[in-house]
Amino acid sequence: SAQEVPDMMPPPGCSGGNCHPPTGNLVIGRGQSLRTSSTCGLHGPELYCVVSKLQDSQNCCFCDSRDGKSHGIENVVSRSDPDGRKTWWQAESGVENVTIQLDLEGAFYFTHLIMTFKTFRPAALLLERSVDHGHSWHVFRYFAHNCSGLFPGIPPAPGRRVSDLVCDQRYSDIEPATEGEVIFQVLDPSFLAENTNNAEIQELLRVTNLRVNFSKLHTLGDRPLGGLRGHPFYYYALYELVIAGSCLCHGHASECRPAPGSPPSVEGMVHGHCVCRHHTTGTHCERCQGLYQDHPWQAAEPGYPHTCQECKCHGHARSCHFDMALYLASGNVSGGVCDACQHNTAGRHCELCQPFFHRDPLEDPRSLHSCKPCDCNPMGALEGGLCDAYTDTTRGLLSGQCRCKVHVWGQRCDSCRPGHYGLSLTQSEGCQPCRCNARGRVPSTQACDPSSGACHCKRFVSGRDCSRCLPEFWGLSSDSLGCRPCDCDFGGAYSNRCSAGQGLCLCRPHLHGRHCQELQSGYFCATLDQATAEAEHGRSLQPADPQLPVSVQQGQGEIKAHTLGLRAGRAHFARVVDGAGLSLLAPTVPRALDYDIVLRYETQVSGMVASQVGGWCQVVGWGSFLTVVLLPRVGELPGLRSVDPGALRRLQELHEAGCLEAARVSPPQSMPEACARLACSISALLHGGGLACECHLQGSLSTECAPLGGQCPCRPNITGRTCDRCLPGTFGLGPTGCHGEPSGPVGVGSGTSMSFLYVA
């Protein structure tokens, strides 16, 4: 405010720590604040006489307040003009108990009083003061020419202490008859050794009202029996009243200004509003400024200004208050408590943040933005989004850390803890457990997706909870991949899918085992060249046979050849001599598929050989021995034709093991083990499962046959896959075999014939 100035260089009036405003006459400018209980002439002209001029015939006059001869109380105010003794205040004649009272607009220091009288000084008076604007009064000093007689019980001046109540006889004599003075000093010079800054003396100096009570007039020994009232010789008359003092500033100001509501200012007037220093404020610098309440307010003393100390509010409060209990508890170090902390701060020193705010460790504590909102996720946070207001590692506090639900974490409580998902406002614990199968989930990652709850499964595991193997896998376990491949046989099983628990594939008829690679008893797999037509079973055609073409022609599903006849030769072969032919029935094929036609032959006489698979002529040479084989184009079969890595691997194995080449040669060679396994799978595909052995009950030694090819174990002189025929030259197939002696291998002989074969 205008009454508070900063403390820089000490101004005049401030030395040694405390300040003193100049002393002046408190009456100046306050004539309207003076009042008296008696003034002459108020009710009409009133005769009075001047006792000091009794020898003068003009010693009596009239007092009349209605014209220029008035003698109101305002006349006692000191003037600097030379006619100062031409005006005065005068009471009614003969009235003894008269008061003069000064009402100040506030508290002031009162130091001394001087009254200059026009007539005799009072025979007795007393000076009173009030510190509560006239509600109560206390006597300052008694004055009397006979203290013991007029104020019995009051000790004579001086007292032993400055505050003692005494009676002073020095200023009450009848002489002089005019311009006599009554002087009073609050601090008697004889007591100056006392500490004038102690509370008792300071209180003694403070006044809001002063009252002079004239209680007895001096007379010249002619006091009438009826009293003095109206006696023109005896009255109180006062030239000047000086009440010296200064504004009350407790040592914290060296100047004062008009207070609100005070009388208009005039020259020499003592004002009552202090211009405070030392961070004090108030009309009398009686308290500390709003932000300077860290220590208790004290009046300044010589050498000790007792400057008010600033509260440590970090710039977040406009005021603070003093708490004595805190001050004492701190060892008289600090007692300030900040008021109404701003910028979302809280605490005694605004050093904390309000609930739902936290201290930003990167911001200066005095920054307007040092307290940031908690920013908690309402779905995962507790206590309405309350967070740690500051960091304290000893207490486990982290600034900004929200109070999370049981299964939630993160500074904002916006993430599910590992092993949980589905952050939700309605979930009392924030998130739900993942419920992942421990064997099927990847152990080193978050168990499940924190949003959907879908578990992170191992490579060959599926399902929301990782509890199922992928199609074509089985045996959920704790190993790194989770499940094992079904590895179902691509021919023996209907598909590559198997049971989840045991890995059992779904087998085609007459196949079993986990992979469907084992044959049921009494069943076999066909070889790749199982579809064969043997020449020995053909019908010979003579050169004159009209069925023999003279040129290549389209056939009707038969194998035809020019021949001269059949002769004994190698087993399963027939010699076709020059000019003769052979008619064979095409073997039955198990499945609609593209087949390669293979002719196995041997020539007795070298000649031109031309062979072509398809529906066209086969020029075989001179004296050929024939076997016709239908080889399936396996690359078109399921499990061998797709881009699946397994199919490519199987095709590669077929070629690398020479399985297809081995099936073409004459005579057929024994197959490698890999070829036998693949041939069995292909057979199951082509034939829809295992083939029945169907061994001849009499011609075979057993109902079991060879797993590959199905050859039954034949009795003596019996031949055929099922042991159902006698060897050439034998007869009578029965439980002991065939009778007779075999005539030798069939198809072995000589001849020089050219054969033309047409295959449809």
Report on the structure:
It is found in: Secreted, Extracellular space, Extracellular matrix, Basement membrane. Keywords: Basement membrane, Cell adhesion, Coiled coil, Disulfide bond, Extracellular matrix, Glycoprotein, Laminin EGF-like domain, Repeat, Secreted, Signal. Disulfide bonds join 276-285, 341-350, 404-413, 457-466, 469-483, 693-705, 695-712, 714-723. This is Laminin subunit beta 2. Residues 525-760 form the Laminin IV type B domain. It contains six helices and 50 strands. Strands 3, 4, 7, 8, 9, 10, 11, 12, 13 and 14 form a ten-stranded mixed β-sheet that branches. Strands 38, 41, 43, 44 and 50 form a five-stranded antiparallel β-sheet that branches. A three-stranded antiparallel β-sheet has the order 39-42-40, with no helix packed on it. By secondary structure, it is mainly beta. Helix 1 (147-150) links the parallel strand 10 (138-144) and strand 11 (167-168). The radius of gyration is 70 Å and the shape is rod-shaped. Among the domains are: 1-21 and 252-304, Laminin, CATH 2.10.25; 24-248, Sandwich (Jelly Rolls); 493-520, no CATH class; 524-692, no CATH class.
Shape: rod-shaped
Q: If you consult CATH, what is the topology of the domain at 24-248?
A: Jelly Rolls
Q: How confident is the prediction overall: mean pLDDT?
A: 84
Number of strands: 50
How many angstroms separate the termini?
125 Å
What are the low-pLDDT stretches, counting only 5+ consecutive residues below 50?
548-572, 605-623, 746-760
CATH class of the domain at 24-248: Mainly Beta
Main location: secreted
Disulfide bonds: 276-285, 341-350, 404-413, 457-466, 469-483, 693-705, 695-712, 714-723
Pfam families: EGF_laminin (PF00053), EGF_LMN_ATRN (PF24973), Laminin_N (PF00055)
Subcellular location: Secreted, Extracellular space, Extracellular matrix, Basement membrane
